[in-house]
Amino acid sequence: MHEPSLDILGIGNAIVDVLARAEDNFLDARGLDKGGMRLVGPEEAESLYAAMGPGIESSGGSAGNTCAVAAALGARVGFLGKVADDVLGQVFAHDIRAAGVHFPTAPLRGRAPTARCLILVTPDAQRTMNTFLGACVEFSAADVAETEVARAKVVYLEGYLFDPPAAQAAFYEAARLAHVHGRQVALSLSDAFCVDRHRHAFRKFVREETDILFANETELLSLYETDDYAAAVELVRGDVAFAALTRSEQGSVIVAGDTTLTVDAVPTKVVDTTGAGDAYAAGFLAAFTRGLDLAACGRWGAIAAAEVISHVGARPQADLKALIGGR
């Protein structure tokens, strides 16, 4: 077995994020559920984009954000995801590579355009996401390159990608290849609505294929159909080797075998919660793949998440290595 040349290989929706500030009445006028994530068609994506205020555009998607933050922490990172052969596809590819992430997936030609996520950030720092998936839904098991999976210590899968049937097949192919090559599989549940839609399939994948699970409180409760957090923690303990469970300002809980570890959140002024869970997963995995202990993994996750929510946008603006080193 070859020594891994990547620490993390992310697999997820390759999306160009467009972030803009918005007032509550902008959301109300369009019937948007504040703090939620919804899928939109091409027409609504165009009209909403036209109505939004000035935005910040960057390569995004949940796993893409995790990969960029992990690279900023010094991890060796790759990403697999589908963009189209169009202007936004070129923006995505250039941006994620500039963040230090290896991105080998060939673009889609002559089909759906590159995906975009229109993110409205209200004054209370909540983010409301409107996603046009475009080329993302074309990602399939054929795009899961064995050579890429084999060279990564951990393959990280984002739950948002679980919606299309072809992507579910890609998850299983990635997990199969990872385990054949002695690698670990990490999964982020991504969104409680996503879990609601595919609970049975998620439960099966978590139980049978997942080594490391990332979830926030609502996602975890949805997965196990309970409102008893302690009971959900015990259920996940039996399903995976490691679970990193985020609880916003209450910090995170890391579960591994008989161990339960609580990690405090890092105090910060919350400006925009976009990408908090993605950044936490990045910090955790960057430390984990270095062989650091679980307390350090949780601390790295907390520091990365705190930095990302302290400004608009899901990518770090401060030197994360310096922040980690200073604590």
Describe the structure.
This protein is of the alpha/beta class. It is globular, with a radius of gyration of 18 Å. The chain is built from 13 helices and 14 strands. The protein has a single domain, classed as UDP-N-acetylmuramoyl-L-alanine:D-glutamate ligase, CATH 3.40.1190.20. The chain has helices at 24-29, 42-51, 62-72, 87-98, 146-150, 165-180, 192-197, 199-209, 217-223, 229-239, 276-288, 294-308, 320-325, and strands at residues 6-11, 15-21, 37-39, 56-60, 77-80, 101-102, 115-121, 127-132, 152-158, 184-188, 212-216, 242-246, 252-256, 259-263. Strand 13 (252-256) and strand 14 form a beta hairpin. Helix 3 (62-72) packs across helix 11 (276-288) and helix 11 packs antiparallel against helix 12 (294-308). The model has no long low-confidence stretch (mean pLDDT 92). The strands form two sheets. Strands 6-5-1-9-10-11-12-13-14 form a nine-stranded mixed sheet, sandwiched between helices. The longest helix is centred in the middle third of the chain and has 16 residues, at 165-180. Helix content is 39%, strand content 22%. 51% of the residues are buried.
Note poorly predicted spans.
Answer: none
Please, how many helices? 13
Binned strand content: 15-25%
Identify the CATH homologous superfamily.
Answer: Ribokinase
Binned, the helix content reads 25-40%
Q: What is the CATH third-level topology name? A: UDP-N-acetylmuramoyl-L-alanine:D-glutamate ligase
CATH architecture name:
3-Layer(aba) Sandwich
Any idea how many domains?
A: 1
CATH class: Alpha Beta
Question: SSE order in H/E notation?
Answer: EEHEHEHEHEEEHEHEHHEHHEEEHHH
Radius of gyration: 18 Å
Question: Biggest β-sheet, characterized?
Answer: 9 strands, mixed
Strand order of the largest sheet: 6-5-1-9-10-11-12-13-14
Helix and strand content put the structural class at alpha/beta
